[in-house]
Amino acid sequence: MPKYVLALDQGTTSSRAILFDREGNVCASASQEFKQYYPQPGWVEHDAEEIWQSQRAVAEKVMAEGPEGRVGPETLAAIAITNQRETVVLWDRATGKPLNHAIVWQCRRTAPMCDRIRQEGFHPTLREKTGLVTDAYFSGTKIAWLLENVPGARERAARGELACGTIDAWLIWNLTRGRTHATDVSNASRTLLFNLRSLNWDEEILRYFRIPASLLPEVRSSSEVLGDTDLFGASVPIAGVAGDQQASLFGHQCFRRGAVKNTYGTGCFLLMNTGAEIPHSQSGLLATIAWGRQGKTVYALEGSVFIAGAALQWLRDEMKLIQDAAESEAMARAVPDTGGVYFVPAFVGLGAPHWDAYARGTMVGITRGTNRHHVVRAALEAIAYQTRAVVDAMAEDSGLRPEVLRVDGGAARNDFLCQFQADILGIPVDRPATTESTALGAAYLAGLATGFWNDEQDLSRQLRIARRFEPAMEAGRREELYAGFERAVERAKGWAV
Question: Residue 452's Cα: distance from chain center in Å?
Fold first, then answer.
């Protein structure tokens, strides 16, 4: 009798593996960071081979050091995959080797290409068909760049020698030893190439970008058996796949229309379930597919903030102001406020609702009395302010303002951040007992596909809220602080033009 689902959580800065039991408990986990490459200002790359090797290593570590000793493949009901979205890999079908470093979702190298798309008037077509905006964030322009700039890639792609996909497709290819080239609808919906209505790669868009359809993976449901892997000693089905933010939405059990969650990871991502309805945003938010299951497609409205936890990583690695992210909470509490300092972490431009690829990181309000505690506090507050901007836009678009915000991600463990988030939104913030909602959501999708869990009602019994943060800030103070951040954002915009 299978006892676990193994979730592979491939993120922007690390690869993780988590073993879940039938109660949704974390039974074992392992994590491994990998190198970030910044070849030019605004460019971000990963070594796809290192991603695969790190992901395989943590999976093997979890199975070797399970709750009762070694976990055999026969105890696994399924393998689930959740992944950093929009990051793309181009590889040789024959050798399985990448032709280039993976281009990461944060990378801004295709911003000039996006400018040309707007000048040529094709951006309304992209917006209408894909639900996305014309921005370097998404995969389509990255794939076009690779075909144009990797020697011989366009010709080889035309001959069917190459494969390309987001990180989930890359992992599936390696797990199945090249037998399966597939992705799920949630990841496909982030490429700028996928039609939200037809649920297929869009031929008109592919022609515009000069991307052959044969290069791309087959699009499947988020909850079905996509293939199997024998890398762990016996065949195990790969049965649940979703982009990290959609997986988080499912993990938070936001099954009803209007339910909202926010993930504080490298970036910050707020999603609202809109049910069977494709949302339309006038406020710079995105329409996306939440998941596909049992022949039904669930859509979502999303606001993406590019830099959240990555700002703390920058304070740690580059500025040496903190030794680890956990230290930021005590430092923030060491001062009563930021002393008027605002930090806009637009390191790779601004995402929703601004979509300014040429914005850059900005710190304003610095005085001679500013110290590192003020800067660290300003970085944490910036995460909450950026979330407020997205919540306001979402309420404007949907007519629904959330009554409560469910949160997850590494930075959600920070009590100061959660409390300040509740204060600046004016609504409660709920933190579940497990902040591993992303991996859990993928595990749920895989477990439902293989009968490990019966249905969504079966899952609802597992939802446990560890702590609720109630807003305590006076409304006038809340609006005064947020207005200051909005002023700082205006100074960050358009800097790199």
Answer: 26
> Which residues lie below 8 Å from residue 75, measured CB to CB, with a gap of 6+?
2, 3, 4
Strands 76-83 and 405-408, by their bridges, are: unpaired
Prediction pTM value: 0.85
d(CA 481, CA 473): 11
pLDDT of residue 456: 87
Is 226 within 8 Å of 238 (Cβ atoms)?
Answer: yes
Percent with pLDDT over 90 in the chain: 76
Question: Strand, coil or helix: what is 9?
Answer: strand
Looking only at the bridges linking them, the beta strands covering 236-243 and 76-83 are: parallel
What band does 123 get if pLDDT is binned at 50, 70 and 90? very high
What's the confidence (pLDDT) of residue 370? Answer: 97
Name the nearest CA neighbour of 89 among 166, 194, 177. Answer: 166
Q: How many CB atoms lie within 10 A of CB 486?
A: 12
Which residues have a Cβ under 8 Å from the Cβ of 248 and sit 6 or more positions away?
261, 263, 269, 271, 408, 409, 437, 438, 441
Asked if pLDDT for residue 314 goes beyond 80, the answer is: yes
| C-alpha of 4 from chain center | 24
What is the predicted pLDDT for the residue at 194?
Answer: 97
Domain layout of the chain by residue ranges: 4-244
The string of pLDDT tens digits covering residues 76-93 is 999 999 999 999 999 999
User: Rounded CA gap, 50 and 470, in Å?
Assistant: 42
* The domain made up of 4-244 is a member of CATH 3.30.420.40: yes
CA distances, 222 to each of 86, 388, 443 (Å): 16, 30, 11
Per DSSP, the three-state class of 156 is helix
Closest Cα partner for 197 from 279, 273, 96?
279
Tokens 């801004």 map to which residue? 108
Which residue in 160, 66, 146, 135 sits closest to 102, CA to CA?
146
pLDDT at 150 over 90: yes
Let me know if 297 is exposed, middle or buried by CB neighbors in 10 A (0-12, 13-18, 19+): buried
- 444 phi/psi in degrees, rounded to 5: -60, -45
